[in-house]
Structure formats: C-alpha cells, structure tokens
Amino acid sequence: LAAIEEFDELQNRYDFMKQQQDDLVEAKEQLRRVIDKINRICSRRFKDTFEQVNERFEKVFPVLFGGGHARLVLVENEEKGEMGIDIIAQPPGKKAANVSLLSGGEKALTAVSLIFSIFLVKPSPYCLLDEVDAPLDDANVHRFNDLVKEMAKRSQIILVTHNRHTMKVNNKLFGVTQEHKGVSKMVSVSLEEAQKVAEA
C-alpha cells in the first residue's frame, strides 16, 4: 500500500531533478552561444583595430627613422592554437628583419612607432614614456621629439628623460634635487616663463 506514496515521492523528485537538469543544459547552451558571439565580435574588432594600427605604423615608422618600411604580421602558433603579432622592420639601408634583430636604438624607435600608432587609433588622455630616448643618437632624438610635439596636440605626454634635447621641447620640467643630504625636494620649471625671465 505504501508503494503508491513512494512512487509519487520518487516521481516528484525525478520531475524536480529533470527540471534542474533541463535548466542547466539550457543555461549551458545559452553560455555557449554568448561565448561564440563574444568571440566573433572580439575577432572582428581585433582584426579591424590591427589593420588600423598596422596602417598607421607603416606611416609613423618612416617618419621616426627618416625612411624605411615596417609592418605588423599576424602569426599563428599551430601547436597552441593561439595568434601572435610579429614586427617586421626595415630601417633605411638595411634588410627587412624581425625586430629582435635590430640594435637597441632601432628597437626603441620601432617600439615608439608602434605606441604612437596605437595612440593614433585609440587616443588616450595621457601617455607616460620612461627614458625611451636613452638609446637614441642625436639625429634620432630630434625626429623623436618632432613626433612627440605632434602627439602632444592630441594627448598629454609625460616624459622621463635625461636628454637635454628632449627637455628643450617640453613645456614644463619637473625634477628631484637634494639641497640637503638625504632630503629630496621636487622642483618644477615652466620653460616659457624661464625664457621670459632670461630675455628681460
């Protein structure tokens, strides 16, 4: 006689568990569809942005190097199934090569070209560059500074540098000095005001 009640209990439990399973399967399918959609959107946006950055990079590189060619190349790792980006650069008078084969100064200029190319596609309110001009010779520093002045029209550029040529092109200089041993002090100079005082 108790079998009918036990059957009803088991049936109710089965129905509940089946509903839970169906909900989980449906949620899993929804998640899969959402992931596929996100992957398609991300792939399309990445491809569009990559092409825009590559186009700007091909224009900025010759400006910094005074000639030459460079491009970005998508590289696929078949073992891991991942994509990567390779930089092929050809400074004036040299053969096209991977960026890892360039000199320190050429690597720095190539990296700056890429950074500014990205900024031209996706501007940012400010950009912090930490001693990127250190490995550059005077001719390259002047071209670098010309590009920095141009980029400063779009974004605020903050440069950490010891190069006197780079310091000259900035509006304001900030530094740290030690008037007394072990006590650091911040100093700032507006070059426009300093020039007015020097002329007066």
Task: Describe the structure concisely for a colleague.
The chain is α+β, with helices and mostly antiparallel strands. It contains 5 helices and 7 strands. It has a 3-stranded antiparallel β-sheet. Strands 4-5 form a two-stranded parallel ribbon. A two-stranded antiparallel sheet has the order 6-7.
Task: Provide a descriptive summary of the structure in words.
- This protein is an alpha+beta fold.
- Helices cover 55% and strands 24% of the residues.
- β6 and β7 form a beta hairpin.
- α1 crosses α2.
What tags apply to this protein structure?
7 strands; 200 residues; alpha+beta; two-stranded parallel ribbon; 5 helices
Class from helix and strand fractions: alpha+beta
- Can you write the helix and strand succession as a string? HEEEHEHEHEEH
Work out the helicity level: 55-70%
Regarding quaternary structure, what we see is: single chain
Q: What would you call the shape?
A: elongated
Describe the strand arrangement of the main beta sheet, using strand numbers.
1-2-3
* Terminus-to-terminus distance: 113 Å
Number of helices: 5
Strand content: 15-25%
Instruction: Give the biggest beta sheet.
Output: 3 strands, antiparallel
* Structural Rg: 29 Å
Query: How many β-strand stretches?
Result: 7
* Uncertain spans: none
Mean pLDDT: 86
